[in-house]
């Protein structure tokens, strides 16, 4: 039976019906195929690809070409989940015109079904313009990784009254600009609850407490694959990294001990067909 495709309208309906939204990142075809077998609602092809796949220290070096390449790969493996692509650093900050052009590229060339933009009040004109040309936008406020240098690192935001009030204002600006949902990252649970109650659009938390309308994690973090960024909010549901290490070590041992390949893993030709036979 063909899977029902998730749309932005389905995501918004889930908040109204008080059903939790589930989201994960994916950056390639194999992971996309695996996630497509589940009932995950949203797959974000995040600019976190720069850190977890490409080996950068932050997301800032990620380019439009990187994002288009990885969105294409994920698109080929997904039939159900809503695919959202991150707008990388400097793809939308310069001007409204640049943001329109690059959002269009993620959809037209990559196959994204929505785009994600970091920032609140300062980005509302970009969000509104992109929505107005028919591209769904997911907002992102709180700890916005593209502002890592301004924040002085990956620090929890909204811990004092003034900063919390600013993040709430940013979230409302994103909603007013027409975004269909918003990611809340790295903020106190109490603020995540307040924003989730104040907005009509769904909130999707990552390090924002249990009261958001949904949750998102980086798939590599969930699976215990090695990385340099290990914030408090990560929960590891498996330890695939250790399993891969063990498997590779077993392979090395068997090759060196001439146990692999065995007869079971070798091809043979029939003697009468062998080149050396009469």
Kindly list the characteristics that best describe this protein:
278 residues; 2 domains; alpha/beta; TIM Barrel; eight-stranded parallel barrel; 11 helices
Question: Helix and strand layout, with pairings?
Answer:
Elements: H1 8-16, E1 21-25, H2 29-36, E2 42-45, H3 49-52, H4 64-77, E3 82-86, H5 96-110, E4 114-116, H6 124-132, E5 137-142, H7 148-151, H8 161-176, E6 181-185, H9 189-198, E7 203-206, E8 214-217, H10 219-223, H11 240-256
Helix pairs in contact: 2-4, 4-5, 5-6, 8-9
Write a concise synopsis of the structure shown.
The chain is of the alpha/beta class. It has 11 helices and 8 strands. It has an 8-stranded parallel barrel, surrounded by 6 helices.
Describe, in plain words, how this protein is organized in 3D.
By secondary structure, the chain is α/β, with parallel strands linked by helices. It has 2 domains: 8-239, Phosphoenolpyruvate-binding domains (TIM Barrel), CATH 3.20.20.60; 242-273, no CATH class. The protein contains 11 helices and 8 strands. An 8-stranded parallel barrel has the order 1-2-3-4-5-6-7-8, surrounded by 6 helices. α2 (29-36) links the parallel β1 (21-25) and β2 (42-45). It is globular.
């Amino acid at each position: 039976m063909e899977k029902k495709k998730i749309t932005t309208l389905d995501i918004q309906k889930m908040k109204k019906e008080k059903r939790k939204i589930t989201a994960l990142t994916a950056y390639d075809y194999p992971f996309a195929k695996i996630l497509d077998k589940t009932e995950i609602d949203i797959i974000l092809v995040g600019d976190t690809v720069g850190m977890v796949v490409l080996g950068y220290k932050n997301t800032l070096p990620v380019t439009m070409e990187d994002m288009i390449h990885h969105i294409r790969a994920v698109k080929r493996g997904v039939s159900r989940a809503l695919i959202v692509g991150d707008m990388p650093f400097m793809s939308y900050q310069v001007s409204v015109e640049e943001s329109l052009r690059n959002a269009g590229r993620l959809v037209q060339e990559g196959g994204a079904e929505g785009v994600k933009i970091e920032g609140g009040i300062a980005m509302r004109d970009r969000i509104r313009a992109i929505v107005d040309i028919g591209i769904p936008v997911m907002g992102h406020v709180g700890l916005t990784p593209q502002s890592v240098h301004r924040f002085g690192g990956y620090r929890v935001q909204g811990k004092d009254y003034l900063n919390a009030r600013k993040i709430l204002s940013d979230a409302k600006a994103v909603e007013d600009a027409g975004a269909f949902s918003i990611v809340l990252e790295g903020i106190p649970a109490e603020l995540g609850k307040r924003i989730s109650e104040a907005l009509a659009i769904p909130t999707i938390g990552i390090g924002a407490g249990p009261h958001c309308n949904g949750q998102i994690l980086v798939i590599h973090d969930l699976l215990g694959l090695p990385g340099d960024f290990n914030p408090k909010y990560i929960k590891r549901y498996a330890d695939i990294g250790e399993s891969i290490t063990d498997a590779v070590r077993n392979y090395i041992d068997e090759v060196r001990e001439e146990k692999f390949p065995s007869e079971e893993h070798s091809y043979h030709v029939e003697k009468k067909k062998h080149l050396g036979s009469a």
